[in-house]
Amino acid sequence: MSEHARARPRRGPRVRAVLAGGVVLTIGVGATLASWTDSESARTTVTAGRFGIEGSADGTTFTQSSASTPTTVTLTTAATSMVPGQTVYGGFSVRTVAGSVAGEVTLPSPAVTATGTTAVPLDAVYSSEVRTIPSGAACDAGTFAAGTTVIPPGPLGQAQDSAARPLAADRQSPVHYCIAITLLSSADNAAQGAGASVVWTFSARSVVPGT
User: Matching InterPro entries, A to Z (predicted)?
Assistant: First the structure.
């Protein structure tokens, strides 16, 4: 009986050893979840473009101007002594500046200021019309008649071009306008001496390529 009683306590340490081994095994499994990693990178550079326009009264020499210092349009006939029914013509060309992106141009209503010696309303004296003509063509009665209407005949200072005309990038393919101003045949005798200063400001903006 005494030998059997002494042998039983040895079972306790063996159980504890097995439990300790189980804890070590669990930690070892968690350590095997690590992975190899790698990465790739890409790079690009973007730069904003530039946009600007310039104009010319002769279709050859282009400069930049403003409403306060506009380019003077040369008329086909001196417009200082017009008579009823007479029409004078003047050309103006618009293009983008060197290095500019492409764009489009519109022609809003001009600013008209009376300059003569009479108070007769200018709309009762003058009318205007604008057309586009081919490159290299002089703005006169012949090319105007064959041109494409931009602004139909109407009172001086009220008409405007709502359609945008494309402008190529980098000074290419200017848009050539031909402006006609007529002293109305219906102008009254009181219109004698009535003058006007007319300033057209061509409005342009850049466009997204391919649109």
Answer: Signal_pept_SipW-depend-type
Contact 130, 180 (CB under 8 A): yes
- 174-186 pLDDT, tens digit per residue, is 999 999 999 999 9
> How many angstroms separate the CA atoms of 66 and 48, rounded?
24
Compute the residue count for the chain. 211
Among residues 211, 207, 173, the alpha carbon closest in space to that of 49 is found at 207
H or E segment and range at residue 7: helix 2-7
Residues of the chain with pLDDT under 50: 15, 17-27, 29
> What is the tens place of the pLDDT at every residue in 73-91?
888 777 888 999 999 999 9
Q: Which pTM value belongs to this model? A: 0.78
Q: Report the alpha-carbon distance of residue 17 to residue 9 in Å, rounded.
A: 14
DSSP 27: H
What gap in Å lies between CA 152 and CA 36, rounded to an integer?
Answer: 74
